[in-house]
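Try this one yourself first.
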């Protein structure tokens, strides 16, 4: 039976998830694959195109017909008007990469490319937690801080397509430098990588030095959960009330 549907793909640092979604918002087919994010810029795009083509083939075999639209969500800031990815945290080779143009050439169809947090905000607005609201702010908290903005029922991209990059709103003009070129961005304080940097700075630890055992997970990686638990226990360093000498002693005792 031919049905009205759209194809969507979410590009993560490790995996790609690809789905056929009915116009009512139900996932009718889901496929997974590796994102191969460490490969060259063109190879990463070719992998995305191959996985989309696979989904379209599966859908066709199941009698779904062709999708009405194809959407691709990628991490990192991009110009949604041109489909050019400025930079992507997991794909080092994508710097000013014309992803949409490349995908359209490979697939032979029009493709919409947007930031993953923007796509997430739209999803929550359409079928999720923000259903029925007209003005929505979505924040993604992880290695970085991503954001999506919906105002008056419309996703806001801004002039350059980066209006929703709330992680790069300046909260302290004298704060640490950020990859975006600014200083003291929200991401420097509220993301896992930002918190790790603050902890290292306050303990006076050079990069690569082990962190105190209380704030690492079983694999030795920095743990926001561990830092939060320390703060709840009243640890003054974790609560941001103390720096330097005593903190340095803690670092030595745990390494
Ligand atoms: Zn920034």
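Now uncover the answer:
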């Amino acid at each position: 039976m031919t049905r009205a549907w759209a194809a969507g793909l979410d590009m993560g640092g490790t995996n790609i998830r690809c789905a056929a979604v009915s116009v009512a918002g139900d996932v009718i087919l889901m496929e997974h694959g590796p994102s191969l994010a460490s490969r060259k810029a063109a190879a990463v795009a070719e992998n995305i195109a191959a996985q989309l083509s696979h989904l379209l083939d599966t859908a066709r075999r199941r009698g779904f017909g062709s999708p009405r639209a194809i959407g691709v969500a990628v991490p990192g800031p991009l110009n949604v008007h041109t489909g050019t990815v400025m930079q992507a945290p997991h794909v080092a080779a994508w710097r000013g990469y014309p992803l949409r143009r490349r995908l359209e050439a490979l697939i032979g169809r029009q493709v919409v490319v947007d930031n993953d947090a923007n796509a997430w905000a739209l999803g929550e607005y359409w079928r999720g937690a923000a259903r029925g609201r007209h003005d929505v702010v979505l924040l993604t908290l992880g290695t970085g801080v991503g954001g999506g903005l919906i105002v008056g029922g419309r996703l806001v991209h801004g002039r350059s397509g980066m209006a929703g990059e709330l992680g790069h709103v300046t909260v302290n003009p004298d704060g640490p430098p950020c990859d975006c070129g600014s200083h003291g961005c929200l991401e420097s304080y509220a993301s896992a990588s930002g918190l790790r940097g603050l902890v290292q700075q306050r303990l006076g630890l050079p990069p690569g030095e082990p962190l105190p055992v209380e704030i690492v997970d079983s694999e030795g990686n920095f743990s926001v959960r561990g830092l939060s638990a320390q703060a709840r226990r009243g640890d003054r360093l974790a609560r941001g009330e103390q720096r330097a000498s005593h903190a340095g002693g803690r670092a030595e005792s745990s390494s």
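Discussion: Residues 41-61 form the longest helix (21 residues). The mean pLDDT is 89.
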